[in-house]
Amino acid sequence: MSASSTAIDPAEVVERVLDRARRAGATACDAVAVEAESSSTSVRLGEVETVKLSRERRLGLRCFAGASSAVASTADFDPAAVDAFAAQVVELARAVAPDPFAGLPDPSLLATEWPDLELYDPTGLELSPEERVARAKACEAAALSADPRLVNSEGADFALGAARVAYASSAGFAGSYRSTSYSLSAAPVAAEDGAMQRDYWYDASRSLDRLADPESIGRTAAARTLRRLGARPVPTQQVPVVFDPQMAASLLSHLAGAVCGGALYRRASFLLDRLGQDIASPLFTVIDDGRLPRGLASRPFDAEGTATRRTVVVERGVLKSYLLDGYAARKLSLTSTGSASRSVGDVPSASPTNFHLAAGEHAPEAIIASVPRGLYVTGLSGFGVNGVTGDYSRGASGIWIENGELTHPVEEVTIAGNLLQMYRDVEMVGNDLVFRSSIVAPTIKLRQMTVAGR
Amino acid sequence: MSNPPDAAPQTFFFDRFGLDARALESTLGAALARRADFADLYFEFRTVQGVALEEGSVKKTTHSVSQGVGVRVLAGEKTGYAYSDEVTVERLQVAAQHARQIASAAATSTSVDLRRAGGAQPHALYPVASEQVVRPLPERIALLERVDREARAFDRRITNVMASLAIEEKVVLIANSAGELVADRQPLLRLQVACIAEDGGVRHSASAGGGGRVAFDFLVDDEERALRFAREAARQAIVAFDAVDTPAGQMTVVLGPGWPGVLLHEAVGHGLEGDFNRKGTSAFAKLMGERVASELCTVIDDGTLPSRRGSLNVDDEGIPTRRNVLIEKGRLTGYLQDRLNARLMGVEPTGNGRRESFMHYPMPRMTNTFMLAGEDDPDDIIRSVDRGLYAVSFGGGQVDITNGKFVFSASEAYLIEGGKIGAPVKDATLIGNGPDVLTRISRVGSDLKLDEGIGVCGKDGQSVPVGVGLPTIRIDGLTVGGTRA
């Protein structure tokens, strides 16, 4: 794969469409173009199962007619098509109601220079098809050879991709950046006494040489799967609950949703009107860092050209900042945090970047050892989270803790509580923070939740 | 803005991209240049026009146009797939070369004749012209403004209404190495209404909506569906003010008719998809012919229901959809199949090969999944329960197909006490075991209802529209994830 196989430069397309939109009467406009190529190779039981190659490019345009606006997207980069597209979006903008808060960001917030965030490492893009297959095979083989009870597989998948994003606006911003991504995962299936379990493990990185080796990913996938064999429900009770880093990250993702602009100005967040208040345990510090070097959600500027930054969202339990794009900031009389993101065909809205719970001081083993009787959660399922009230009820699986030790696996139970109370109930924070995805957390222990089972 | 015209889909694609049958045959020939079992091309042109209202007016309109082609080659259990959103003869050749990577040996014959056979005749389940589906923007805006007024008029505590209308028009053309050339045009309309209710600093939200492969008039016919959805979202948000803590633990659960059919989708539907059963990774693998539900249960997946959100004239591999009986009187009778898994399992495809777009290869997927009506009076079913939960509205669900554990989240539910419906309870997740839960069904009502048309099913990162349906049922023992232990 080569990342520059197309003759059309996204930055040029963006300039052209903005020029045509202004000529068609747009009072302001911005445009984003994305060009991406990716490949994924999966193997199952030692044989290639799928090879997928993709190539895509999209152009998104937002036009203002005074305070009215419209957004449209197309995959047709042909110059004549781009010209017609621009004129049509201006027409659409004239048809909707004005919104006094609509507009481009304050020019003083626009990014003017940015460091190299090390998001682009093309060396791995040159891997041959055979080498891609070999990595997936090695990963799956390491998983399946770990134990005779690993009898089947959902396969292992090696994916890589390169993208180029260009953004420009009539506010005077123009910028572009490249990124790459590499990931490898395995999902083995274990069987014992007629019951099956599966789990998975993965790693993801901006550069191939920082990706965990296939064997370690496979072995971790095997261990995670094996420890689920023999799982059973426990009786309904209220106990301390320890979340492993992946599940702690899922709790953090609900916080991310509740501090983003859209949920706030729509009054649909359980953290509305709580800036400056204690919303979590003093052990709880949450940071959103849009410029984390090599971060999987890093970007030099946001989807409106605003400079990205490191924002302390929660500091020792106190809610310090929301995450805002320009529109939400104006609606709330606050300042943008450079958090605008947009799919090419949609209006920008605030979303988290590298959103993480700061590491604490405890080894995860010490956290488990502190629990006389409780649940160590390693899996969560379903959608039982109410972002307006914070009410929380999800399916859970994990391992039962008795006298500080992991005993038998647990499944077919739910855990329930209210997120505000849950964040306040954080009693211990682990030292095991790893940036493996955009929202990450270390192991955490909550004082008490309701576990429902038999 | 470049909507698909009403011309025949085949003519539309050939004109738009400067293609002809010979170019398609030559691409399929290139795809088959190594030893493969099958190759197909999936051309797609899709527009989505959206309008969204909040704070009383429509301030947002979007219009997206996407187009592209996916080339697939199957060899044994292997799939090679390549796609491009640039559709030219050259890109088609490149994609075919990429897709055939998975096959090794040289082929014996690579000729494909698309004029030879037509493939099976598609259904005509949604014969609506483009101008009946896409109405002028002012008309769409006016509808959302009426929805806003209706929801706010329901109760003074409704403080914000978010309504959105998405109209999708998709045109597809599928050509394959068996010489079949099949086209379809697939309209899809969806109205979503969400209400925020606020009283004394306490806030609640709820949403409702519906649609299908229908004309715009579906929303504004005699029944004025759009306004009914508005009142429904408002009603659910207001009911939540009275909600008490949900009990935790195992209890008798009565599910209301319609959307609670998401139970079937999660508990059994995914587990009966052909890919998981061929690979032996589903909790339902090797259970064909076995008792997996009470004999009151017959479960159907039917892609042929006129105008339904989950229906298709042909699936995304060009095969006409069917009515497939998955469970008959409690016994497992059918899996859902696409071409690949059907061939490998030695059975017929069932018209369930679906994909999100040209960027994805097809997989076995559900269409409209429901349980046939029984004979019980729904009120009698509630009266039969001394203490339990009556759940009538749900958010989403999820299943682990390997261990069979599924969850689904009730967004409107009530306590049942002494055979009577009591206080509403807070949102709670219900959890159970797929191969086991339907064996616990002791009553099936006469009131089968299909959902309103908002379902989206996700699998392996691909989303497709689906439908579900259910009569009122009683389940003897399901774990309810409340807070009150």
List strands and helices in order, with pairings:
The complex is a heterodimer of chains A (454) and B (485).
Chain A: H1 10-23, E1 28-44, E2 47-65, E3 68-74, H2 79-94, H3 129-144, E4 150-169, E5 174-192, E6 195-198, E7 201-205, H4 214-226, E8 237-243, H5 245-259, H6 261-265, E9 286-289, E10 310-315, E11 318-319, H7 326-332, E12 340-341, E13 349-350, E14 354-357, H8 364-369, E15 373-381, E16 391-402, E17 405-418, H9 419-424, E18 426-429, E19 439-440, E20 444-452
Parallel strand pairs in A: 8-15, 14-19
Antiparallel strand pairs in A: 1-2, 1-4, 2-3, 4-5, 5-6, 5-7, 8-20, 9-10, 9-14, 10-11, 12-13, 15-16, 16-17, 17-20, 18-20
Chain B: H1 9-17, H2 21-31, E1 38-54, E2 57-75, E3 78-84, H3 89-99, H4 130-133, H5 137-154, E4 158-176, E5 181-199, E6 202-212, H6 225-239, E7 248-255, H7 262-269, H8 274-279, E8 299-302, E9 323-328, E10 331-332, H9 339-345, E11 353-354, E12 363-364, E13 368-371, H10 378-383, E14 387-399, E15 405-417, E16 420-425, E17 428-433, H11 434-437, E18 441-444, E19 449-450, E20 456-459, E21 462-465, E22 467-470, E23 473-481
Helix pairs in contact in B: 2-3, 5-6
